Structures are given as structure tokens and as C-alpha cells.
Amino acid sequence: MRVCETASPPTYYFPPDSIDRSLLRCSPGGTTFCEWKGTATYWNVLPPGGLPPGGQPSDALQRVAWSYEAPTPAFGAIAGWLAFYARPPLECWVGEERVQPQEGQFYGGWVTANIVGPFKGGPGTSGW
Fold first, then answer.
1. Quick one: pLDDT at residue 53?
2. How much is the pTM?
3. Cα–Cα distance between 91 and 20 in angstroms, integer?
4. Confidence at residue 127, expressed as pLDDT on a 0 to 100 scale
5. Residue 106 contacts residue 122 (beta carbons within 8 Å)
6. How many separate helices (H) and strands (E) can be counted in the chain?
7. Measured between alpha carbons, how far is 12 from 67 in angstroms, rounded to an integer?
8. Is the peptide bond before 118 cis (omega within 30 degrees of 0)?
9. CB atoms within 10 A of CB 83
10. How many other C-beta atoms lie within 10 A of the C-beta of residue 110?
11. Would you say residue 120 lies in a domain?
12. Rounded to 5, what percent of the chain is helix, strand, coil?
């Protein structure tokens, strides 16, 4: 599901049944709150096949996905769906195009050739 937000490129949310949830671990790093969508839960992602013998939870990709497990009523359609930051080492694609991550460390929009900014997230944009 493609969700468009003010001053951001679209964020893509994937249905829970399309993701191997055995590779997800809830991140102990806390949550964030969006006044529109509610409280976001962050997820660490294990490598395919899980952790190798002797592997530690810190070997997972940290906080590379998030979800709204109990969003506000207006965003109920994304309950439990997951979005991913398009930052290395992840590669995220829309069709045949590899997306660029939205600037900054907080927002998770996916920038493609047909999406034009300016976008929130870069230096000097926090007050928008």
C-alpha cells in the first residue's frame, strides 16, 4: 500500500502475510509517535535463514522496518503492515526502479524518478 504524506515521498507498506515474520524481531530501541497514525513499532531483520550458529541479536539489521500495530482509526488499513527504510544494506524497488531513501534518519519515504520534492528530512527541514 502506498501512503502519501505531507512533505514526503510515498511510504510503501507491505501486508503481514507477504513477509517472512520469522526473520523479524521487535526492536528494543523504543517507539515513536505520529499524531496522524499513532505509535510506531520498530523491527530488526535477521538474515535469510536466521542467525548463524553463535550469532547474536545485534547481528540483525537494526530498526530497518516499522509498523503501526494499532493505528488511529483514519489509518486502520495499515494495521500490522510493515514499511522498510530504503537505506543500505537494503535495496528497495518500485517496479524496475531502485528507489533512493528519503533524506535524514527519521522519515522513510521512497524517492523514484517521478517523485519531485522538496521533501522533509534533510538539513534545515525539521521546522516545516
1. 81
2. 0.89
3. 17
4. 66
5. no
6. 0, 11
7. 11
8. yes
9. 23
10. 24
11. no
12. 10, 30, 55
> Into how many domains does the chain fold?
1
Asked whether 75 and 37 are in contact (CB, 8 A), the reply is: yes
- Return the C-alpha cell found at 30: 523504543
82 inside domain: yes
57: CB partners within 8 A, 6+ apart: 25, 44, 51
What the block records as the C-alpha cell of 6 is 505531507
- Consecutive sets of 10 residues in the chain, 128 residues long: mean pLDDT of each? 91 96 89 94 89 79 95 98 94 96 89 90 75
CA distance 92 to 110: 8
Instruction: Judge residue 23's burial from the number of C-beta atoms within 10 Å of its C-beta, 0-12 exposed, 13-18 middle, 19 or more buried.
Output: middle
CATH number (domain holding residue 70) = 2.170.150.40
- Grid-cell match 550458529, residue found: 53
The pLDDT of residue 57 is 73
Within-domain flag for 17: yes
Residue 73's CB is within 10 A of a number of other CB atoms, namely: 6
